[in-house]
Amino acid sequence: MCQIVHDPDSIYAIGVDIGGTKVNAGLIRENGEIVWNCRVETLAGQANPADRAIDAITNVLKFLDHNGIEPRLKGIGVGSSGQIEWRTGSILFGTELIPGYVGTPLKQMLKDAFGLPVLVDNDVNVLCLTEKVLGTGRDANHLLCLALGTGVGGALMINGRIYHGAWGGAAEAGHMSVDFKGLPCLCGGAGCLEQYASGTGIAARMRRRLSEQGVPDKGITARDVIALWQAGDRIATEIMDETFAALGTALASLIHMFNPEVVIIGGGVTEAGEMFINRVREEVRKKTMRSFLKGLRIEPTFQGNLSGMIGAALQVWEYDTCDHRKM
Ligand SMILES: [Zn+2]
Question: Where is the chain membrane-spanning (predicted)?
């Protein structure tokens, strides 16, 4: 393969999205356009995602080689599930789906393997960058993103920049409590948003409610609960009413705290579309001071399951990679 060249002025970078079961990698232009991409399975968590990321990046470089394109790249950007120490690009805490991932010095591994600047951030933070460049957040400087999936993740953009906090853990909205007497959470707290608004939390509350009524557990999922809610089922409606009340409470607190222009909500749980987002808007309106609602938009996320990979690559233009040694 030809020698990779680090070109700080290049309009091309490699974006990598690491999830619980797969790694997506692609060649991305500065405007967010995907030139080429591939997907590598992590074999249901049996393979370390860092090794899979190296395989996926190698695939992108092979594509360039086969097409006779000289690999002049600005860098590599990675978005990963879990908690990331942003400066060092190490994995501090990851999902149980990925054994052996915690403690991986991902940034250093990729720098050593490819000799390019590397940026590693949490998957919701990089999604927020996609929103800023391509999505609803295009003209906004103050942005709040919530991702409702297996868990609940958050990202916060203040004055046009992602807010990382002391080490990169900021905006962990899933562990914001909406009820100090509420359901216990793995974090040690009670009533965390994740217990009410994640797919896992929605399914667990439905199962508990059904078992109280003597209905046998048929392994109901969040998708089933949402379909039942849309069809007007009484118990599913009670469960989802709780979900919307929790989301409204959490969002109202965050809106009062950070005064965003746009709130963007995505993740598998929001696949119900307009019906879901309208209920969130309604709950927020009930619980938020009028001055904060003026001009506030609450919108669904930029569509497409590759938006994490795009946002991952966008990091190399968002953050200064001129000092190659630091990145
Ligand atoms: Zn918690």
Answer: none
The contacts of residue 309 (CB under 8 Å, 6+ apart) are 15, 16, 17, 24, 25, 26, 28, 34, 37, 79
pLDDT in tens, 211-242: 999 988 889 999 999 999 999 999 999 999 99
Residues 78-99: tens digit of each pLDDT: 999 889 999 999 999 876 656 7
CB contact at 8 A, 92 and 81 = no
Query: The domain that contains 231 carries what CATH number?
Result: 3.30.420.40
62 CA to centre of own chain: 28
Answer yes or no: do 152 and 295 share one domain: yes
Q: How far is the CA of 188 from the centre of ligand 1 (A)?
A: 6
**Do 106 and 239 belong together in one domain?**
no
Sites in the chain below the pLDDT cut of 50 = none
Distance 174 CA to ligand 1 centre (A): 7
Residue 176 falls within a domain, yes or no? Answer: yes
| Cα 159 to averaged position of ligand 1 atoms, centre (Å) | 28
Contacts for 320 with CB less than 8 Å, ≥ 6 apart: none
Distance 146 CA to ligand 1 centre (A): 15
What is the domain count for the chain? 2
Look up the domain containing 235 and give its range. 138-300
Q: What is the pLDDT of residue 302?
A: 77
